[in-house]
Specification:
Layout: H1 6-11, H2 15-23, E1 27-31, H3 41-49, E2 57-64, E3 67-74, E4 78-79, H4 81-87, E5 93-95, H5 98-105, E6 123-126, E7 135-141, E8 144-148, H6 150-157, E9 160-162, E10 165-166
Parallel strand pairs: 3-6, 6-9
Antiparallel strand pairs: 1-8, 2-3, 2-5, 4-10, 7-8
Length: about 170
């Protein structure tokens, strides 16, 4: 996990929540008790918060033509790798090695946030996000989510909006 500053350690914040606070956008933090036995981090978050899985988005890291790219898609569906590659002008896409994704983002699997990453990666947000007033994404650790407007997420991550999710 990314090294925390003294301010982050004192506030209990993550790089994602610190980035949100610094940007001055409106957001809410939702904490829940993470169950390591649950088969899906995203579905667990939706269930624990009582939020529709269509509004809870997972952050995935893919390798597109040798470059890492972040995909943010609803937990209710799956990532369409071909559509992700097309959204960034690439040809071939595969899921990134989990250890490489963790080292690059500074977050652990199941807690990777599209915000406050150690190395800013190109980001694609599924177009379905724009159909919701707010969405939830990981706040940077398992059991912690942030809820914010999809427009704010797109702006803060310089995300491209594209239909990259599938049912």
């Amino acid at each position: 996990m990314a090294k925390k500053s003294k301010k982050q350690q004192q506030s209990g914040g993550t790089p994602a929540t610190v980035a949100l606070a610094a940007a001055g956008v409106t957001y809410a933090v939702h904490a829940y008790d993470h169950d390591p036995a649950h088969p899906s981090f995203g579905e667990e978050a939706a269930e624990a918060m009582g939020v529709s899985p269509e509004r809870v988005f997972k952050t995935l890291v893919a390798d597109i033509d040798g470059a890492l790219t972040v995909a943010v898609v609803p937990v209710a569906g799956r990532l369409d790798l071909k559509s992700l590659a097309a959204a960034v002008g690439g040809k071939r896409a595969a899921m990134a090695d989990p250890a490489l994704a963790e080292r690059t983002t500074g977050y652990v699997r199941g807690g990777i946030s599209p915000l406050g990453q150690r190395k800013r990666l190109p980001t694609v947000l599924d177009a379905s996000a724009s159909g919701h007033a707010t969405i939830c994404v990981s706040a940077g650790r398992r059991g912690l989510e942030v809820e914010l407007a999809p427009e704010d997420l797109a702006k803060l991550t310089n995300a491209v909006l594209a239909p990259i999710g599938r049912a």
